[in-house]
Write a structure and sequence with these properties.
Length: 380
């Protein structure tokens, strides 16, 4: 082999020969391929760099926007806080003024209560009888001379009517704002009502009650009982009675041995019966008592307990002028849907109806007791 030639082995192990020029060409091609690959990688890196720069720029702009937004929110919160502080300060001032007015009013009321108490004691009748909504109207004569033991002549008092009305199944009661609408519905008697693809026929009737037109009572103040009112609401019954019994048994509170204590659920007042006769009068003379009921003290009112016996009673038929009884309602759909459908029907003027104040539907097989109270005069 000459100096200008050299031997190479190929992949199969055979010896081949190549000239220096061929070798250089191969090296050049190799470097070209490497250079091309590097250029491609450089372009990819440049593109990636540009993308990163773009993302970074967007992120920076977003950060600036967020910082500005946070600054605005902090500014608004600070302004809102200042406004709330100003409102709180104004409310505190208003509360202070109201407290002063309330205290002044309470003092004036206390003065009138004392005068009223003295007048009540003269007739031996207490107007603090439990505030029941009862089923009668008209005047009632009480404290009638020797029969009441007062010797101060006759007086009268009134109570608001409250009637418990048991409803039959398949009926409804509807109260209209306008009396004329109710009377029109009653005068029409039969009413056809479309319920989807079904039509039902109802009958409208007046609601009638047997009510007292005149009542006379003999009354006397019970010497061993007191009536406690102005009690706190939503107080556990057993705990309330225990605390009251403890307070009114103590001599230093003008109390005495308690025979029984009962809560009147309809009025929320409490009746205490003492063993001795002289305890009740001493407590009612004082009238207002500060009683510790556990968490704090409450200012309770103590008044005489009045026994009464009806001596004369006259009654009359009374008709509710704004309430109508609907009968003959079949049980063909859910109660809520039936009530809504009936109420919508009787609200429409085209059906002879009008604005509804109250509505109650009692499905077949259910027991419902509706409460009728004294009708308030319509405001013009």
């Amino acid at each position: 082999m000459s100096d200008e030639e050299f031997s190479l082995r190929n992949t199969s192990g055979e010896v081949t020969s190549a000239s220096p020029l061929d070798n250089v060409k191969q090296e050049i091609e190799k470097y070209k391929a490497t250079h091309k690959k590097l250029l491609a990688e450089q372009r990819d890196l440049s593109k990636a760099k540009d993308d990163l720069m773009d993302i970074t720029k967007k992120f920076q702009m977003r950060s600036v926007t967020l910082r500005n937004s946070l600054k605005e929110e902090e500014k608004e919160q600070a302004q809102g806080l200042e406004k709330e502080k100003d409102k709180l300060s104004a409310l505190q001032k208003e509360e202070s003024v109201l407290k002063a007015e309330i205290q002044k009013t309470e003092e004036e009321l206390g003065h009138f209560d004392r005068i009223n108490h003295q007048l009540k004691q003269q007739t031996q009748v207490s107007t603090a009888v439990p505030e029941k909504m009862v089923v009668f109207t008209g005047d009632v004569d009480v404290g009638m001379g020797a029969r009441a033991g007062a010797g101060a002549g006759a007086s009268s008092f009134g109570l608001d009517a409250r009637i418990m009305y048991p409803m039959e199944g398949g009926t409804a009661l509807i109260t209209f704002e306008d009396e004329e609408v109710a009377q029109n519905i009653v005068s029409l008697k039969k009413h056809e009502i479309q319920l989807g693809e079904c039509t039902i026929t109802l009958e409208a009737k007046p609601v009638q009650f047997l009510m007292p037109s005149h009542i006379e009572m003999d009354t006397d103040v019970c010497p061993r009982r007191i009536l406690i009112s102005n009690l706190p609401k939503k107080f556990e019954e057993s705990r309330l009675l225990d605390r009251l019994e403890i307070h009114f048994q103590k001599k230093r509170n003008r109390g005495g041995e308690v025979d029984s204590i009962d809560l009147l659920h309809d009025s929320g007042n409490v009746v205490i019966t003492f063993v001795d006769d002289d305890v009740a009068k001493g407590l009612t003379d004082m009238e207002y008592h500060d009683v510790d009921l556990g968490k704090k003290k409450y200012r309770l009112r103590v008044t005489p307990f009045v026994n009464g016996k009806v001596t004369d009673l006259k009654t009359r038929i009374s008709v509710s002028r704004r309430t109508v009884l609907l009968t003959g309602i079949p049980n063909i759909m859910e109660p809520e849907n039936m009530q809504d459908s009936l109420e919508i029907h009787f609200q429409k003027g085209g059906n002879g109806g009008g604005e509804v104040d109250a509505f109650i539907y009692n499905p077949v097989g259910h027991n419902v007791v509706a409460v009728f109270e004294e009708d308030s005069p319509k405001k013009e």
